[in-house]
Design goal:
By secondary structure, this protein is mainly α. The chain is built from twelve helices and no strands.
Length: about 240
């Protein structure tokens, strides 16, 4: 009975950060990535005719690759680093034991600890990145927020595969294979499930409906992966 009460204590999960991020170095790396992204966005903003180029059907790989591909990949690397030792050092078993065994909120909280700053940070930095196109208004918000599903998708994909395979190497391998194929195929291989919809200008090169469906599918899969790895991770 005392053990049951102890496991139900909702304050326990706040102490677990010392198990996987002693000194909060992984969180510091997350903010360092955002600082680097901010510097790059300041030094290399898109040209003022960005919207006109999109409407003419151009694929702006040199501009949109930063947020479509690079930032999500960095987010996936960070998540891989955060959860890397879970199965090597038995941390997963410890965190699984101290959960309500219906949904692993500790696992979800760990993922959110790094993905929320990356998503919100890239969103606001993106608004500065597009300052030559539209500065800190609804247009700049839309230009920036359209990249956010990619961060959620790639990082949740990696963690979902990691949890089911019980191997960070497998999660990283599957994610990199998807990433490389999507880049090299210009989004044609995965189509509706491609994270390169902005880089490859699906909105005008295919259709607006196709583009919105792509964003919806990527976002929906992200939530599905979140549910799957939190449910799977409660099973020893």
């Amino acid at each position: 009975m005392p053990m049951f009460i102890y496991k139900k204590d909702k304050t326990l999960d706040s102490s677990f950060i010392n198990l996987y991020d002693k000194g909060k170095w992984k969180l510091k790396i997350t903010y360092a990535v955002l600082a680097l992204l901010f510097l790059v966005s300041l030094l290399s903003p898109p040209p003022g005719d960005y919207l006109l180029a999109i409407q003419e059907g151009h694929r702006l790989k040199g501009i949109d690759n930063l947020y479509d591909y690079t930032v999500p990949l960095l987010a996936a690397f960070i998540i891989c680093y955060v959860f890397f030792n879970d199965y090597q050092e038995g941390i997963h078993d410890i965190l699984t034991f101290y959960t309500n065994r219906t949904f692993n909120f500790i696992m979800l909280r760990r993922w959110l600890t790094y993905i929320v700053p990356l998503s919100l940070g890239s969103l606001f930095i993106g608004m500065i990145y597009f300052r030559n196109v539209s500065f800190l208004d609804l247009d700049s918000l839309w230009l920036s927020v359209r990249f956010t599903p990619n961060i959620l998708f790639l990082s949740s994909l990696l963690l979902c595969v990691t949890v089911y395979a019980k191997s960070s190497y497998t999660g990283l391998f599957v994610t990199l294979v998807y990433f490389i194929i999507d880049v090299l195929s210009d989004g044609r291989m995965f189509k509706l499930f491609s994270i390169g919809s902005n880089t490859n200008n699906f909105f005008y090169s295919v259709s607006p409906e196709y583009y919105y469906l792509n964003r919806l599918m990527i976002l929906s899969l992200s939530f599905l992966f979140l549910f799957l790895f939190c449910k799977r991770s409660v099973k020893l």
